[in-house]
Amino acid sequence: MTIAAAVTAPTIAPLHVAPRHAAPAVQPRAAPRRDPSPLNPNAPAQQALRTAASAPPSSSSSDSARAHIANLDKVLGKPPQVPRVAASNAQDPEQEPLSVRHGLLNALNLSFFVPMPGMRARGTAADEHMSPRSLMHMQQLLSADSPRASPRSTIAPRWRSLHGEGGWAGLLDPLDSDLRRELLRYGDFVQAAYQAFHSLPTASARHRGLMLPDRSYRPTRSLFATSALSMPPWAKRPNTPEWLTQQSNWVGYVAVCESEREVARMGRRDIAIVLRGTATCLEWAENLRASLVPLDGESSDGAETGAEEPKVARGFLSLYKTAGEKVKSLSEEVMEEVRRLMEKYKGEELSITVVGHSLGAALALLVADEVAATIPDAPPVAVVSFGGPKVGNAAFVDRLGSSGKVNVLRIVNAGDVVTKVPGVAPRLPHKKEQYQHVGAELRIDSKNSPCLRPDAGPACRHDLEAYLHLIDGFTGTGRPFRHDARRSVIRLLQLQRGNVKKEYVNRARELGVDPTAPADVGRSMAYGNCAVASPSS
């Protein structure tokens, strides 16, 4: 039957008898009805056809004929060509603002959080300076938690070299990837100490909630430091918090690795001694007591001591050796706990890692020295110092080096003034009275960060989170920032917003992060179970 014959056929014929070549098309389909695409030029006609088909039968034969012809055209005709909207939109000036907005957001891959039609991830050369590689990577850095944890390989065969045997020769520049992960983990332990203290600064040891970012470690003892100074009554203010002026304060903790899987990965059971930096008024006052005194106590007035006598800063030794009214001295607490853990895990391969930031780094050296001097069978001791000051004279440096048990790694941010103090004590003829640094040095620089301003201030250069951010991206001297750095920069943004490049601040706002909000309100961005962030001291 031809199309012309179909036009002159009776009205009811198309409803019951269909041409053989068109029979497959007129059978009803079980598939659900789909709305016509707005880009299909035949969409209005198809919609009209559906409307006519759903209407009651009409007596008009012409309407039935037109419906049948449309039905045949759908079967016999070729599908209409869908116009390419990309080319038309490119010339449409009204679409340009939308394209620009989506261009900025597409690069952040926001479809992962909020699906947006037509969004595609793309970057431009102009955006390259905003992140180590692209805006996609910036989104990862600005996420609350890194989407993928940095993989940990087995370090059992080489744990001694990573722990300082050989002075970290060949591991610092370029920075070994396994060593980087170890340093970041110990740095997060110090961040946890800061958070635990500032969440409950006046709490006793049994009331202090401390959850470590690495759950393979378990805290075993809280540590307190007591100042020999006291705040004069005239210096106290009515609204000053008590913890700012009290003599004894929680300063850190001892933790031990209890995960047998992690013990097997590391090749030994690690004991971590973690110490925070300066936080109270009396601790600041002790930092200013920079005169050198013998390790075994105060020297008598006018007594001439040998040039080779090890000496350390008076304020640091005071915080380490002074006992409080209700707590033991930091020295007693640490030595008791180390001996207890050594007895508990007797016969196992052990290591001791003492880690601290700022003041905590100075106290860490005193801890390591006493462990090596008073515990003959002590395991290898490593000190990881983040932004630590000078502690003692040349004889003290020689004492640590000659022990054969202590290895010190100092991580120094270029321009961090704390690493340059205390300065030089008054030099006496033929006396080694000047301060000296001890151990190997890993030097990083804020200027190498893609998100920190080159003129970042001294507070930023000493901030612990800035240190960890730079370690995460450091590959070697003169090399670019690591393109696959994974550490979130939200904490850094909230603590050092004025020192973060404007591009990162703007991108953070687009991602819904408020740079002006206090760090880690309600939930820690880095740990998920600690209260507040570390101060910049």
Automatic annotation (TrEMBL):
It is found in: Plastid, Chloroplast. Residues 19-30, 52-64 have a biased composition (Low complexity). One of its GO terms (molecular function) is phospholipase activity. It comes from the Eukaryota. Residues 19-97 are annotated as: Disordered. Belongs to the AB hydrolase superfamily. Lipase family. This is Fungal lipase-type domain-containing protein. It comes from Urochloa decumbens.
